[in-house]
Amino acid sequence: MDTMIASLRPLADGTMPSPGTPYAIALQQFEQAADLIGLDQGMRDFLRHPRRELTVNFPVAMDDGSLHMYTGIRVHHSTIRGPSKGGIRFHPSVDLNEVRALAMWMTWKCAVVNIPYGGAKGGVIVDPDLLSERELCALTRRYTAEMALLFGPESDIPAPDVNTNPQVMAWIMDTYSMTKGYSVPAVVTGKPLAVGGSEGRLEATGRGVVYTIREALRAQGKSIADVTVAVQGFGNVGSVAARLLAEQGAKVVAVSDVSGGVTNPQGLDIDDLRAYWRENGQRVSGYRQGDAISNADLLALPVDVLVLAALENQLRGDNADRVRARIIAEGANGPTTPEADIILADKGIVTIPDVLCNAGGVTVSYFEWVQGLQAHFWSEDEVNHQLERIMTSAYQTVMDEARRSNVNTRMAAQALAIRRVADATRLRGIFP
Ligand code: GLU
Q1: Mind telling me the catalytic residues?
Q2: Residues 6+ apart with CB under 8 A from 232
Q3: Model-level pTM?
């Protein structure tokens, strides 16, 4: 089972994603996991299609007085287990098929950690680095207004993703609330604390990544203090994971972002690097307490743990054989292709799959939503304790499934998730 890549079938509208793209990969993974659990054809067809999609084209008044058109997307893959949940990314490479893939992965992610949500994702095709703060605010508000058809605390709850942050979430919360006439904090998660955010949400994805790494090391009789780490991506996930790992005694020997990478075999001082990153326009390149390293070489370092916290399709058939890490932690969504999965498995490398590894973010989003609905807020200790409980139990459940079914961890996680969504679908029945 692990050495097979499922073939693609067209969707109901006759389209088929291009091979090698995230959506093709998400569908191939789904078919393979569906085979594993013996999912019947009807259920399989239902679960591989997104439930609904909205594409909007909208104007933003730019600072120079001109109008600029932008395209925004929101996809609900599933609403079977609850409201749809998932982040919004602002990135030039956003497209409908990418968002479909990310929405499908959110469905499996929420099911893996067993929180009562379906999966969604949204995006705007934009390079936010080229916008002023006022333009970014206007873009966010107009996108939110266009998506008001979908967003709501009972229907669809967005959150941060690539290039979006608590400030953007506050603008979404405000825009939605303005249309209602009262504050609706539970419409979005990842908000600043001052407007109903949760303690621990900002760090939750990185913290969850570290819990799963700790469990993977424990299974090998090691602890975080024993290991060397390389981290690809220094955004909200990679920088937090790097800091927490270093705090717990790991040697973080390399870090990279879009600007390039830095390496220091003695271990990087992550707090110092973070301060440099802030002063250097949020870029790690040029950091003096280390040598420059390319992204490609970082992926091939002989470390114990490689954290992938950038974008999709980073380890592929053409570079996976260079990987020398023993454990790969997928802080990003979809960083490893099915071809790479086969190569890594052959090399005996353990992959902690995205839908498990980075599920800490949406888990604390769930806590934030619950707190917002109840207007009752938890301490940071309580949040972290509940996060640890959910992440370690999901980790064990996935590993048990992998052992029982004799498959890799990605297949185990997806099989578990698909079974949960299929069971809920059967219980609800098909309308009418
Ligand atoms: N964007 C994050 C993810 O991919 C968080 C989603 C959420 O909190 O809803 O999991």
Answers
A1: 121
A2: 238, 256, 261, 295, 298, 299, 306, 307, 308, 309, 310, 314, 335
A3: 0.97
